[in-house]
Amino acid sequence: MQAKITVTETWLRKHRHLYDGATRHPFIRSIRDGNIDISAFKTWLGQDYIFVRAFVPFVASVLTKAYKGSDDGNGDVEVILGGVAALHDEISWFKKEAFKWGVQLSSIVPQKANQEYCRFLESLISPEVEYTVAAVAFWAIETIYQESFAHCLEDDSKTPPELKETCQRWGNESFGEYCNSLRNIVDRQLEKASDDVITKAEATLLRVLEHEVDFWNMSHRRT
Ligand SMILES: Cc1ncc(CO)c(N)n1
Description:
The protein is mostly helical. The chain has one domain (7-220): Heme oxygenase-like (Heme Oxygenase, Chain A, Up-down Bundle). 77% of the residues lie in helices and 0% in strands. It has helices at residues 7-14, 16-23, 26-33, 38-68, 76-101, 112-125, 131-151, 161-171, 173-191, 195-220. It is globular and about 50 Å long. 4-amino-5-hydroxymethyl-2-methylpyrimidine (HMH) is lined by residues 48, 51-52, 141-142, 145, 212, 215. Its EC number is 3.5.99.2. One of its GO terms (molecular function) is thiaminase activity. Pfam families: TENA_THI-4. Residues 13-221 form the Thiaminase-2/PQQC domain.
């Protein structure tokens, strides 16, 4: 029997080019090829710390929407709660890693692309944004990092040893399983969503992909 094609599958096929642009960005390729400029890595590290801090209230809002969405016989709340817990760990990791690289987190100024991405996250916190739409953004944000960093850990990669731990953070298998759980949540929601919500959710996915590309650009293009 042929498995049914899910909505996310349709979207990923349709927007493959933009999706690959986000998951196979020159910044990621430079890590994978081992010719990353360490100052670009440090820029990314400091900026991503700021992003992750803004990501926390967004994920909390998705959690709230999952809870209020009430027919949660599927354990959405627990999956998302796992994401919140992982973020707590992630923030400690950023502090440790920044210290290691001599990056002063307290003096980091968010760059324009980061500010715009954080503002976008804030707009999604609004109760007027449906659970389905917010969950699509959440799934996409996590999955782009998972796929990007997993790419740097493939057998033929030349990722510098000192960056392997960073790649492991998002590229590891259990983070991959978590992303799959998010995808299942999203597909289950989309299955019963109105056309209007599906349209909004797809547009939100595209915005996430664009913001992710801009975010990588911010680190990569600095000289
Ligand atoms: C910009 C960005 N996107 C996604 C993630 C994944 O959590 C992250 N840490 N930063």
